[in-house]
Design a protein that fits this description.
Strand content: 25-35%
Radius of gyration: 27 Å
Number of strands: 6
Order of helices and strands: HEEHEHEEE
Largest sheet: 2 strands, antiparallel
Number of domains: 1
CATH architecture: 2-Layer Sandwich
CATH topology: Translation Initiation Factor IF3
Distance between the termini: 69 Å
Helix content: 25-40%
Strand order of the largest sheet: 1-2
């Protein structure tokens, strides 16, 4: 339903086919004693990046309505477009925190902290914040607008610093 996504303001560059498959559907015919093709099942899995946070539920509803009963919407997750500014802030705090802890350990051990001899950084990928499968409403069920809450994302990284012991 990528046309439904673009009609709702999702840019073409933010829509990508992840998986596409056409499979025969067969059934056994007892009279002919053979399997006969009764149709084909098409699976088209698409990933879309929705940038308008306040319209997520509305867009999901439009796609589900356009796709019909066999539409499945899953694996909703949230991310920051460019986290580099956040990483700079987190990195500064992590290095300062590592220095404070190293100085405290050195003080407990009765030694003085020297220069850093090793520094390593690793980013921590947060888990998917939200996962829900949405199914089109059953006949007779009242229509309900889809409510999606992005909440907050935590950006973190780990810093390892080894210090020399000063004389």
């Amino acid at each position: 339903m990528s046309w439904q996504l673009t009609e709702n303001g999702v840019a073409k560059k933010d829509i990508q086919t992840q998986y596409f498959n056409i499979r025969r559907v067969t059934k056994w015919d007892n009279n002919r004693e053979e399997e006969v093709v009764i149709g084909y099942r098409v699976t088209n899995m698409v990933t879309a990046k929705i940038r308008e946070m306040d319209r997520i539920g509305e867009i999901i509803d439009a796609v589900a309505l356009a796709g019909g009963d066999l539409t499945r919407i899953s694996n909703i997750s949230f991310s920051v477009e460019d986290p580099s500014a956040y990483y700079e802030e987190v990195r500064e705090k992590a290095v300062a925190d590592a220095r404070i802890k190293a100085e405290q350990l050195a003080d407990f051990a009765g030694v003085k902290l020297g220069k850093a001899t090793y520094i390593s950084e690793g980013t921590v990928t947060p888990p998917i914040v939200y996962r829900q499968d949405f199914y089109v409403k059953a006949e007779g069920a009242p229509a309900v607008d889809t409510s999606i809450s992005p909440g907050e994302l935590e950006i973190s990284l780990s810093v390892q610093i080894a210090y020399a012991i000063a004389n």
